[in-house]
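sry for the spam today, last one i promise. struct tokens for design, 319 residues
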């Protein structure tokens, strides 16, 4: 007799994420170049929900045209005119450094333009920690939130970069209420192979955690994707691990593999996603022009939780 089909539960924690932010004050947010209807409407909707207090930065005529196209009213928001997108990115970072905004949000400019302003050694938002990106995914067939890093900033991270990527992701998991996140370091296989650098990096990262160079999480790797998120797959391979089959965080070998994985989950598995940049002076909301309004709102909510971390509490998102 065939087993009944599994019925996915859509968006289990999304509403809870927003509910936890409703009791918090809106976060002042520098929105760099919101000059298309989607990016502008996302910022305005997040403001309507009480998540952010946006400062709109970019060419005034383009912002007003985007507002007309999106049928939103921007008259009540601070608007900082700049001549072009590069200037908008620079001005947004300047407002952060001056204490006039607490969060940076990408509008319709290219990611490279925004991150160039962020990464400037003299005028940017760098810290001692490597900057990295994390997707917070709500995958219908997975029983809890899933963090994926790095799929947007670091193209080919070395071992030291990966150490910071892992630590950034663990720190975000703590803010989200995951007390001891289970971190799977992904590769194509679950055994160490000297010809496959990602397996060597995975083993080194696990030993770094043993030596206190990475703290706050439980690491294992290398793990292939299937045995990182499916207990039966892990057992079939004979993997004895506290992480395998139930990971909270997936650390990918490079940007290409991470980007493909995240977009497969979104477009083929119906996952919700929030995207945020970690390791800078402030959270950076980094969304794509193809992202849905739901994704933009969720990304804003994660940034609010990071900014108001001392007031959020530690109730897990899955609770």
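last one done:
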């Amino acid at each position: 007799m065939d087993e009944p089909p599994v019925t996915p539960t859509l968006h289990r924690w999304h509403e809870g994420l927003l509910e936890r932010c409703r009791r918090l004050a809106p976060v002042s947010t520098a929105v760099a170049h919101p000059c298309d209807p989607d990016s502008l409407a996302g910022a305005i909707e997040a403001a309507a929900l009480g998540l952010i207090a946006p400062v709109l930065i970019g060419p005034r005529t383009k912002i007003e045209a985007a507002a007309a196209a999106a049928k939103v009213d921007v008259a009540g928001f601070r608007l900082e005119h700049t001549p072009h997108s590069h200037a908008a990115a620079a001005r947004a970072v300047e407002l952060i450094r001056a204490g006039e905004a607490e969060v940076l949000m990408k509008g319709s400019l290219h990611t490279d333009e925004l991150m160039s302003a962020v990464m400037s050694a003299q005028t940017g938002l760098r810290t001692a920690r490597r900057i990295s990106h994390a997707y917070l995914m709500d995958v219908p067939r997975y029983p809890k939130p899933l963090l994926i890093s790095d799929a947007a900033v670091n193209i080919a991270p070395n071992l030291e970069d990966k150490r910071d990527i892992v630590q950034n992701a663990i720190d975000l998991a703590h803010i989200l209420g995951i007390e001891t996140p289970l971190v799977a370091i992904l590769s194509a296989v679950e055994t160490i192979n000297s010809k496959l650098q990602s397996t060597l990096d995975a083993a080194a990262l696990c030993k770094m955690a043993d030596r206190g160079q990475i703290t706050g999480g439980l690491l294992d790797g290398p793990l292939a994707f299937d045995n990182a998120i499916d207990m039966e797959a892990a057992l079939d391979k004979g993997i004895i691990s506290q992480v395998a089959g139930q990971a909270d965080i997936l650390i990918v070998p490079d940007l290409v593999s991470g980007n493909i994985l995240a977009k497969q989950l979104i477009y083929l598995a119906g996952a919700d996603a929030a995207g945020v940049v970690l390791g800078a002076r402030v959270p950076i909301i980094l969304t794509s022009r193809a992202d849905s309004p739901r994704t933009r709102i969720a990304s804003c909510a994660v940034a609010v939780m990071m900014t108001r971390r001392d007031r959020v509490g530690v109730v897990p998102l899955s609770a």
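The domain at 128-279 is CATH 3.40.718.10 (Isopropylmalate Dehydrogenase). ok im logging off now
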